[in-house]
Amino acid sequence: MTESAGNKKEDCHAANGVKPGRNGMVKNHHHHHQYQKQEKVYHAACNGELYSRPFMESFEETPMLVAVLTYMGYGILTIFGYLRDFMREWKIEKCHIAREREEQKDFVPLYQDFENFYTRNLYMRIRDSWNRPICSVPGDKFDLVERSSNDYNWTFEYTGRVVKDVINLGSYNYLGFAENTGSCATAAGDVTVRYGVGVASTRQEMGNLNMHEELEKLVASFLGVESAMTFGMGFATNSMNIPALAGKGCLILSDELNHASLVLGARLSGSTIRVFKHNNMQSLEKLLRDAIVHGQPRTHRPWKKILILVEGIYSMEGSIIRLPEVIALKKKYKAYLYLDEAHSIGALGPSGRGVVEYFGLDPKDVDIMMGTFTKSFGAAGGYIGGRKDLIDYLRTHSHSAIYATSMSPPVVEQIITSMKCIMGEDGTTIGRSRIQRLAENTVYFRRRLREMGFIIYGNNDSPVVPMMLYMPAKIGAFGREMLKRNIGVVVVGFPATPIIESRARFCISAAHSKEMLDRALDVISEVGDLLQLKYSRHKVLPSLDRPFDETTYEENEE
Amino acid sequence: MDMKSMREYMGWLYYQYLLITGIYVLEPWEQSIFNTVLCTMVAMVIYTSYVFVPIHVRLALEFFFELVRGQPESTVALMNQR
């Protein structure tokens, strides 16, 4: 038993560490035969016929020394934080941040919890890496307004200079539609001249333009569902529609690392929420079985409905949901699936239809397909697609449909033009070539970063690339050093990630040319050597495709 | 040239020390406080080890050699008694 388990691990390793993933588009001619042989061995050994291509995801373990040093760094900064708080309390130093008024001092303190402590003493010191003002289109390059601070980031002044042509590795511009020239921009301009910019009403009253109807039909045909509905804001789509779908007496099973909009929507609905481990199908199955066997908490009545909330691509981890397994579980236990494709629509799949097409599944299996237009379409807003009766119900019962202003006409036109471009209906092959270029860029960028020795999380095919930094000082240092070399990146720290796992998150775009990526990679390597960020020891935990049993732990012990 | 590259290397090492301990984000006076405290503690450790380590090592060696020398003496004494 252990011997076959050992062999399986070797095969998984071989496919995992060496060959790049394929998004249905990239052709590796000289690796083709070898890869075919390994591919057959890999998926015959793992998980039956659910996956049509290898699912290669890795989350390398934090090196022990790095973890210890990170905790030490946070400890030292906490001590200095207490020192500064003491000085502010005793008026030795002027306090710049919000504090309670004199009259409130005898009440329950407002700003004493760890989050406020962290904001005052750690976030403020490195705050210049966030909220940087941009003064051009955030395409592949952008212009930055330079600012400086005299009092250690409490206030900023503009120096008057504009830093030009900073390479953009932070915008969610996956297909490069964030541009101010081209057919989308001209169409949006024409529509502004015809319809104006404001709609001045909600969808239900006077805000239902013929463009909205056209957009909804187009979205439904793009996704392959019966009907779709669009909303003005992606966050509001999640938080205002989940309460309409689930209520008291329902059970929501949500992934550990779901976005704040999904969590807010689940909480607003008033259902019971249970959380399963990130992308872990065994945990989800256990929760489903427990829910069906035991029913509601005290009365043991069956749940009215069970709704599983997952995302297509998780933007902080770069991981892709194991959709074939989720759908198999959903069908077996008769639950409903809500799939949030905010980052994966337009970015995955041979023709950009998202994670459902990436795995080769039927869109009708997913009950509610939600997504946003912010990332791949260069606009703003969200949509929900599904069966016609579901969408008709949402039209009347969703808070967002009744109370929120409808989408602005130029935004609608941008979505219509870009979606037609992706589908190929405007008669050009621009959409196809962009999707292909995104896939190539993703595979190339991830492979090069991994070879350089950085720790990269996530699936080989996801265009979101989180690179681990770990130590608190390196968060600020990385952002600043990259900007000095004219590259704009997004660094993420504590509240959005676990405290020691801070990271820099790169978003690859189809607008990036290979020269830009090469330049960016050289600079990242240089900064990585300067800051000693190349932590990887190439000891990758293989993602298990078979259920956990007694031999699993023995395998990891080796 | 060697002095210059040596100084650059020392500068890079100091930068790594700033990054790893997290001092990099602090204001200069806070960095000075931390550096002073750390250097004081390191100086005290070095002084204590300079004063006490030779004596401790000598005493430990004496103790172990005493054990080894004591052993053949006692077996010789036993044989002589019989």
UniProtKB/TrEMBL annotation, chain A:
PROSITE patterns: AA_TRANSFER_CLASS_2. Keywords: Acyltransferase, Endoplasmic reticulum, Lipid metabolism, Membrane, Pyridoxal phosphate, Sphingolipid metabolism, Transferase, Transmembrane, Transmembrane helix. The lineage of its organism: Eukaryota, Metazoa, Chordata, Craniata, Vertebrata. Its main location: endoplasmic reticulum. GO terms for cellular component: endoplasmic reticulum membrane; serine palmitoyltransferase complex. It comes from the Eukaryota. Residues 1-13 have a biased composition (Basic and acidic residues). The chain crosses the membrane at residues 64-83. It is a single-pass membrane protein. InterPro entries: Aminotrans_II_pyridoxalP_BS (IPR001917), Aminotransferase_I/II_large (IPR004839), AON_synthase_class-II (IPR050087), PyrdxlP-dep_Trfase (IPR015424), PyrdxlP-dep_Trfase_major (IPR015421), PyrdxlP-dep_Trfase_small (IPR015422). This is serine C-palmitoyltransferase. Residues 1-27 are annotated as: Disordered. GO terms for molecular function: pyridoxal phosphate binding; serine C-palmitoyltransferase activity. Pathway: Sphingolipid metabolism; Lipid metabolism; sphingolipid metabolism. Belongs to the class-II pyridoxal-phosphate-dependent aminotransferase family. Its EC number is 2.3.1.50. Its cofactor is pyridoxal 5'-phosphate. One of its GO terms (biological process) is sphingosine biosynthetic process. Gene3D superfamilies: Aspartate Aminotransferase, domain 1 (3.90.1150.10), Type I PLP-dependent aspartate aminotransferase-like (Major domain) (3.40.640.10). Residues 164-524 form the Aminotransferase class I/classII large domain. The keyword Signal does not apply. It is found in: Endoplasmic reticulum membrane.
UniProtKB/TrEMBL annotation, chain B:
The keyword Acyltransferase does not apply. One of its GO terms (biological process) is endoplasmic reticulum organization. It is found in: Endoplasmic reticulum membrane. Pathway: Sphingolipid metabolism; Lipid metabolism; sphingolipid metabolism. One of its GO terms (molecular function) is serine C-palmitoyltransferase activity. The chain crosses the membrane at residues 9-26, 32-53. One of its GO terms (cellular component) is endoplasmic reticulum membrane. The keyword Membrane applies. It is a multi-pass membrane protein. Keywords: Endoplasmic reticulum, Lipid metabolism, Membrane, Sphingolipid metabolism, Transmembrane, Transmembrane helix. This is Serine palmitoyltransferase small subunit B.
